[in-house]
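Annex B. Sample input.
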Amino acid sequence: MICLKRSLSFIMQAFRSMACAEEFEMCRADLKYFVLTCFLTLHACLASPPTSLNLEQLQRELHQQTNAFRHEKGLEQLEALTELNQVSAAQSQDMATRHYFDHQNPDGQLPNDRLRTQQPGLLAIQNGENIAMRSWERESPAEMAKTLMKLWADSPEHYETMVHPDFWQLGVGFFLKDKVLYATQTFAAVVVRLQDELPASVPENTSLKLSFQFHARFPKSELDAFLILPDPSARMPVGDGSSYIGKGPVRLDWSDESHFSLKLNTRYGLGYYTLLFGRKGNYYDTPFKILVKKTEGA
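Annex B, continued. Sample output.
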């Protein structure tokens, strides 16, 4: 942009100079000089490399190139998730600011730990991570994405992560510090995403509604939910008149193909209510926990 402004300034000065010429031959000579100089100036300006790296464009480029790479291998495309982008960007920034380059951070957290801590509303049954660190030599976002893809594709461990058939989503994030780019890919198999933040606690004897988005690659009819009560002796009735003791299934109310809600009744004691999701009765070990406290003033 600065280069173009300088070029336009030069053009205006040249026009003013030509307007002052009184002789035709002088004007024609000025015109030749003007055209040649403008061409060379604008060519140098447009051909100059970028002075900053557009990280949003790089994010799009890397996601597209990762999916193109998987497509060549006959694999499914990965859905872009904002939450995974945020986890990736946080990891890249953390490596840059705390001066390390590893999947395990100085606090001992691994990718799975960071995903659960930073995005508690995601139920991810699998996840993986690729990281890279490379100097930025003023390449374009497309060129930098291509370079990162080659680095990972040439490494057997990183290659296996990119072509893992059981991942469904991808997030990418970067941090640029002193012309050194830190890059992170976060792969995951996210089953559901909680659309509202879980409250710190809820009062007893209330009905709590939770809304979710379904992201799994299996049919929604195979998704189950199960609730473990804080009181193992409490009876939880179900629709057919029977009841479960200490736990029971939860009904899912679907509003469309990818969104559903459920209601939790907190009349079964104080403490943590543990909500589990599963597929065909096989439940995942990543629960949502809801703390129920005694009603104030009761």
